[in-house]
Amino acid sequence: MKVSKALKMKNKLAGDVAKLKRRFLMSNSKQEGVVYDYDADAVYEELISKTQELIDLKTRINASNTMIQDKIYRISELKGLVELWNGVPTKSGTFPKNYGDGDNVFTSTFSQKDADAKISELEKQIDELQDEIDQHNYTIDL
Questions:
Q1: Which of 61, 85, 128, 140 shows the smallest number of beta carbons within 10 Å?
Q2: pTM for this prediction
C-alpha cells in the first residue's frame, strides 16, 4: 500500500475512533427499562481494537517517512511563520486618541506590503516542500 492510501486510511480510522468514543460515552449510563442501540462493553472493545489498528498504521507511516521527516517538520514551522506574518500589526501613521485630546503616532518596521511579500515567499516554499512530500506519498510503499 502506498503512503498516500495509508494516510487516507489513518484519517478514516481517526474518525472511527472519535465516533466510538462518543458512542461509548453516550451508551454507558442508561435509564432502567430503556433499550439502547449500543452496548457499552461491546463499543469499548471495538474502540480498543480500532485504536490499536490506528496505532499500528501510524507507526508504519512514521517508519516510511524517515527520509522526508525534515520536510514535514519544515512545513510545520513555515506554516507557523505564515501565521505569525498574518498577525503582525502593520499600523502606521497618526490616529486620534480614543480618550482625551491629541493623536497617537504609530510606526511599524514592516508594512502590510512587506508582510504580504513574506507570506507569499513562505507559501511558495511550503508548496515546493508539499510537492516533494506528495511525490514520496504516491511512490513509496509501506
A1: 128
A2: 0.76
Cα gap 84→82, rounded to integer Å: 5
Q: Which residues pair with 123 in a beta bridge?
A: none
The grid coordinates listed for 121 are: 515567499
Distance CA 98, CA 127 (A): 43
**3-state SS, residue 7:** helix
pLDDT in tens, the chain (142 residues): 999 999 999 999 999 999 999 999 998 888 888 888 889 999 999 999 999 999 999 999 999 999 999 999 999 999 999 999 999 999 999 888 888 788 889 999 999 999 999 999 999 999 999 999 999 999 999 8
The helix/strand count (H/E) of the chain reads as 4, 2
Is residue 134 within 8 Å of 72, Cβ to Cβ?
no
Q: Which of 55, 54, 43 is nearest to 19 (CA)?
A: 43
Domain residues of the chain, as ranges? Answer: 1-64, 67-142
Question: What is d(CA 131, CA 27) in angstroms, rounded to the nearest whole number?
Answer: 44
